Each structure stands twice: as structure tokens, then as C-alpha cells.
Amino acid sequence: MWRSFGVLSSDFSSFFRSRSSILNRFSSSYGIMSNTEVNHDIQEGYFFIDLGKDKAVLEYEKEGKNTLNMWHTEVPVSHRGQGLAAHLAKAALDHAVENNLRVKPTCSYIQKYLKDNPLPQYTERVLPAEQ
């Protein structure tokens, strides 16, 4: 009986290992990228994800001392549907929060992201896009 249990327990642990790899494949096939590194080029005014030969970018202009006009987000066609724009938006908005900056969301994707993620730390920083 105990010997059977030992076999069962090793089969059980391999079952969970295989489920884990299935979940990893599932999450990547549905566009959930958990280990995405977002970089920030302060001099040029954009956040980016290095994709080898390409970049996904979120561009902004600094207006005055404390406002970021987030005006453009672009992900190469070959990398769309992987959640990269959301990673860029989150990084840019987190940067605004951490640096006590206001956000002017003139980019339609940023507007959508804010609507879908109405977190108070973001919404309290948002200026109307037409200002």
C-alpha cells in the first residue's frame, strides 16, 4: 500500500509539473506576458520594450514641469495581442505616480487603458485630453 502511494505521489507531482507548463503555454497563447521588461528613455521621451529588431513604444511629451502628454502607443504588427501596450501603459502611469506628475492621455490606447483600469492612483492624475 505505501509503495503504491509512493508511485501515486510521484505521478501526482509530475501531473502538477505538466499542468504548470500547460498554464505557461496557455498564458502566453492568450497574450499574457509576465516577464516583460519596460525601459524608459527620458531624454527622448518614450517607454519601450525591446523586441530584438523591433520596439514597442509609448511616446510622451513633457509639458511644463509636471505634466506628461502621452500621445502615442505602437506595437509592431508581429507582436500585437500579447499585452505589450498594457505593459507600456502601466509603466508610464506608474512613473507618473512615482514622480507626482499629471497625465494628459491624448493617445486613444491610454484613454482605453485608463477606462479599463480606473485605479485611483491613476485617475487622480489625469487631465482632460484637450487641455
Task: Describe this protein's structure.
Residues 39-127 form the N-acetyltransferase domain. With 131 residues, the protein is of the alpha+beta class. The chain has a domain at 38-124: Gcn5-related N-acetyltransferase (GNAT) (Aminopeptidase), CATH 3.40.630. The chain is 43% helix and 22% strand. The chain is built from four helices and five strands. The protein has helices at residues 2-29, 84-98, 108-116, 120-123, and strands at 39-41, 46-50, 55-63, 67-74, 102-105. The chain has a five-stranded mixed beta sheet with strand order 1-2-3-4-5. A hairpin with a 4-residue loop joins strand 2 and strand 3 (55-63).
Biggest sheet, in brief? 5 strands, mixed
Poorly predicted regions are: 1-32
End-to-end CA span: 74 Å
Shape: globular
SSE order and pairing:
Elements (H helix, E strand, L loop, with lengths): L1 H28 L9 E3 L4 E5 L4 E9 L3 E8 L9 H15 L3 E4 L2 H9 L3 H4 L8
Parallel strand pairs: 4-5
Antiparallel strand pairs: 1-2, 2-3, 3-4
Features:
single chain, 131 residues, alpha+beta, Aminopeptidase, 4 helices, globular, disordered N terminus
Provide a quick synopsis of the model.
The protein is of the alpha+beta class and 131 residues long.
